[in-house]
Amino acid sequence: MDELARGRANDFLTRAAGYIQSTLRVEVKHDDIVVLFQRGEAYQLESEKDFVRYMLIAIAAGSGAATPDPDWIHDVMCRAAPANQLKLRSLFRAAHDRLPADVARRAGS
Question: What are the CA-CA distances from residue 45 to residues 27, 52, 78 (Å)?
């Protein structure tokens, strides 16, 4: 069963990396996507959609395996919210204010 769960997680991470790569037009390294997924778990994200939305903004902001999330991402993601959807809306608003306009537009913020 553990092997099946690992396979499903790996498939998800591959799809997420492909989507982020095509959306942001940047190379996404496997190690980066794995670490960002782990951070998403620490931020208590639950759905694949929420993970991808967080990872998209994190990569656009320069986060990765060797680079922690900027303080503004960490602050938004650690803030209490009644639902992850509200937390991610706040993340997209913060990204809109902080990322270059072309990157923010591609990221959908």
Answer: 24, 10, 11
